Amino acid sequence: MAEIQSTVPRTVAELLVAARGGSARAAGRLLTHVEGEGRGAVLDSIGPSPGTVSVVGVTGPPGAGKSTTITALVAAYRAQGRRVAVLAVDPTSPYSGGALLGDRIRMTQHIDDMDVLIRSMATRGHLGGLASAVPAAIRLLEALGYDVVLVETVGVGQSEVEVSAVAEPTIVILNPGAGDAVQAAKAGLLEVADILVVNKADREGADQTVRDLRMESSAPVLTLIASRGEGIVELMEAIEKHRRDDDPDRRAARVRSQILSLAMTRLRAHPALSDVVDDVVAGRCDLYAAIEHLVTPR
To answer: Residue 154 in 3-state DSSP?
Structure first.
């Protein structure tokens, strides 16, 4: 038993060496660290990000075909020889507190590929549809040599717009008919979409949905039949074009959004929050004083 245990990496540095050597288990343990209290130690060990990884966000209503599209994109990127990681951000399970694994089950065709990593991450109450650990996970995956990180969001409401803060570009996937275009507009998804995709384009109503979207948004609108891989080449070309057009102002805007979102999550867990709420309710202080108490270093 002692001999077996001695071969198991114990420190972050050892885990990094093992993960860079191809150990999926070590990479998984590092991702577990960045989801918990070990995040700081991992980030300190890998250093600053060189910004070489391509991060693609995929969002849209449930049933639109996000996971099927991601599976097709993974296959296309692997055909180019690129290492790919998928972060499927799931709602936190009400029973276990962990991530729901439906997305990983649907992507099992890549499970034996050592250059594909698929990880479900629970939102754990973080607003915005993304786990608060996602930016750190992306930075880690970049340090481990992944070329592309695909981030799939929960797909359940207005908070999905946060994906635009970590990805370049953000792809919104919709189905023909069924009011998807209208619902996407109401949810604010069209405002953050860099690329709009009408999946299941062989279905009735696809052409009308494309026309509706082009009237509502200035983003390019593509058609796709993800289950057959049709339209994936065009989607990848649109992704690369959007990345080439990126600029410092857009990058700064994404970083600003991430900082503000993570700060909000920290404030929600602030140990003094309940006390200042009680003080405001009891009339002992006003809202502005309560906010100052939370955000001013003591």
So the answer is: coil
